[in-house]
Amino acid sequence: MPSNYSAWGLLRGALSRHRHWAPAWRDAAPRPHYDVVIVGGGGHGLATAYYLAKNHGLTRVAVLERGWIGGGNTGRNTTIVRSNYLFPESARLYDFSLRLYEGLSRELNFNIMLSQRGLIMLAHSRHDLDSMARWANAMRMNDIAAELLTVDQIRELAPALDLSAGARLPVLGGFCQRRAGSARHDAVAWGYARAASALGVDIIQGCEVNEFIREDGRVAAVKTSRGLIRAERVGIAAAGHSSVLAKLAGFRLPVTSYALQAMVSEPIKPILDTVILSPGTGAYVSQSDKGEIVMGAMLDLFPSYAQRGSFAVKQAIIAATLALFPSFSRLQLLRQWAGIVDVVHDSSPIIGPTPVPGLFINCGWGTGGFKAIPVGGWTFAHVLATGESHPLAEPFQLSRFLSGRLIDEAAASGIAH
Amino acid sequence: MMQIPCIRCGARDEHEFICGGTSHIARPALEQDDVVWGEYLFFRDNPKGRHLERWRHVYGCGLWFNLVRDTVTHEVLAVYAITAAPPP
Q1: Overall average pLDDT of the A97-126 stretch
Q2: CB–CB of A69/A41 below 8 Å?
Q3: B51 interaction partners in chain A (CB closer than 8 Å)
Q4: What pLDDT sits at residue A415?
Q5: Interface with chain B: mutation pick from A305, A313, A398, highest number of B CBs within 10 Å
Q6: Interchain contact B45–A (C-beta under 8 A)
Q7: Is B53 in Cβ contact with A302 (below 8 Å)?
Q8: How many CB pairs under 8 A join A and B?
Q9: How far is B16 from chain A (nearest CA, A)?
Q10: Which residues lie below 8 Å from residue A413, measured CB to CB, with a gap of 6+?
Q11: ∠ CA(A315), CA(A319), CA(A320), 5° rounding?
Q12: What is the CATH classification number for the domain harbouring B38?
């Protein structure tokens, strides 16, 4: 078991030339049998493993990751956390997640570098102002603080924005969720991995699932690139690759996979200490702790499993960012990347059983899975451990696509779909 | 940037087009139950690899047509008319 991280440990390390550090988590080899096997070692899979051990006492748990942990969308997002959703079901879900994030560094004894620097939505037209008033009011009805902002208030919070009368996109106002912000994505994956591993969970990398073996109709084992692994229950947490795994198990999902790209500039001195989102252009912009300007906007709107992103969309993202911040026009682009996101028609997740007995799924987070890692893990662990849906996840079942009880958060998903 | 071969205009840059999603999804009869309609409206194969899909040359001639495209490499494997049967 790794030592507790503390100021005292750092001090002790300074005296011993930092030779006492142990690996943060065990890179395990697969055992033949587990209570629960989770397919997918991203944030959601690792958080699920942690809460299975922590909340339900299940430690015969394995996380199977095809590549390396946190190497998929967990390492490819723009690290924004927020809970500014419209409907009560989503507000409960995402705000529970944000509250878990608020205590997560302490809970995991791992600094996830949560920075609640606020998120500002910009209104560029009279109609935007109306829709934002509705949005902020919907949040308040759900007991989540939101403030409508005037242009002068926005100028104070983000002076780098082009708020002049001649701006390409005039800003007429907006609203702010002050508890929103960003967290360190790699730290979230590693924090959960370390805490889960310390409780006895096996994290198995380089282990691809090729087949679900059924006995009496029920999933009893997975055939992997590292051998056969038996399990009482199997959970899929594979984001953009959910449909591929569902096909192996013999069913379909209401999911389409798209590439969502993001990029960072070279690091510069602090200029933006909040998160800016402009629904009119789709652009969202923040500055990382390293000083890079982090940019993202719309999806590449054609089905894709290629983790790179189209040049045409990259151009549109940069144009949208520069319309808001003309002063960024001379920055050099440092890195660009894309993750494959699992978009469903109502932009809400699926957390629960599948048509195959013994097989469960956590997917459909689409363009906003990072903010939901804690609650995704919490509620998915609940259904994997008990067989019953967690109350927070009850509305987010696969069956809603047959009953028609959709929870359409397209407007609050923040990204044009 | 992808070059999309419009069936009328030939290869043009991707941003002249929009993708209309999966082709050949058959509309069920009205009297079918919610399960059949739910499958039709929402559930997709979403393949990793060869995908039959509709595209429209929206900033060009305006024509709808079908593509066979690989969703991993983005290579266009075939193009055919909107009412034609998919190639084997």
Answers
A1: 97
A2: yes
A3: 303
A4: 67
A5: A305
A6: yes
A7: yes
A8: 73
A9: 10
A10: A347, A366, A367, A368
A11: 120
A12: 3.30.2270.10
What residues contact residue A371 under an 8 Å CB cut-off, 6+ apart? A80, A81, A82, A83, A94, A97, A98, A101
Q: Is B73 on the interface with A (CB under 8 A)?
A: yes
Name the DSSP class of A408: -
Percentage of chain A exceeding pLDDT 90: 92
**H-only helix segments in A57-113:** 88-102, 104-108
> What would the two tokens of residue A267 be?
């690091």
d(CA A133, CA A311): 35
Residue A188 has pLDDT above 90, yes or no: yes
What average pLDDT score do residues A306-332 get?
A: 95
- The string of DSSP codes covering B18-55 is EEEEES--PPPPTTS-HHHHHHHHH-B---SSEEEEEE
The verdict on residue B86 lying in a domain is no
Predicted local distance difference test score (pLDDT) of residue A34:
98
Whether residue B88 lies inside any domain: the answer is no
Residues of chain B falling short of pLDDT 50? none
| Rounded Cα gap, residues A82 and A347, in angstroms | 15
| Residues pairing with A259 in the sheet | A300, A340
Name every chain A residue with its beta carbon within 8 A of the beta carbon of B15.
312
d(CA A75, CA A337): 10
How many domains would you assign to chain B? Answer: 1
Confirm whether B41 is domain-assigned.
yes
**In whole angstroms, what is the distance from residue A342 CA to residue A86 CA?**
21
Distance from C-alpha of A292 to C-alpha of A269, rounded to nearest angstrom: 9
* Cα gap A138→A121, rounded to integer Å: 15
Residue A417 confidence class, pLDDT cut points 50, 70, 90: low
Q: Which residues contact A102 (CB under 8 A, 6 or more apart)?
A: A114, A116, A179
Per-residue pLDDT at A18 exceeds 60: yes
Cα distance between the two ends of chain A: 44
- For residue B48, give its domain range: 3-81
Q: Is the pLDDT of residue A299 over 60?
A: yes
Which domains, from first to last, does chain A contain? 25-108+185-254+346-403 (3.50.50.60), 119-180+256-344 (3.30.9.10)
- CB-based contacts of B20: which residues, under 8 Å, 6+ apart? B53, B54, B55, B56, B64
Q: Chain B: give the shortest CA distance to residue A36, in Å.
A: 27
Report the residue from A253, A311, A402 with minimal CB separation from B1. Answer: A311
SS3 A250: coil
Tens digits of per-residue pLDDT, A191-227?
Answer: 999 999 999 999 999 999 999 999 999 999 999 999 9
Answer whether B22's CB lies under 8 Å from B39's CB.
no
Is residue B87, in this structure, part of any structural domain at all?
no
HEC assignment per residue over A9-60:
HHHHHHHCCCCCCCCCCCECCCCCEEEEEEECCCHHHHHHHHHHHHHHCCCC
pTM given for the model? 0.96
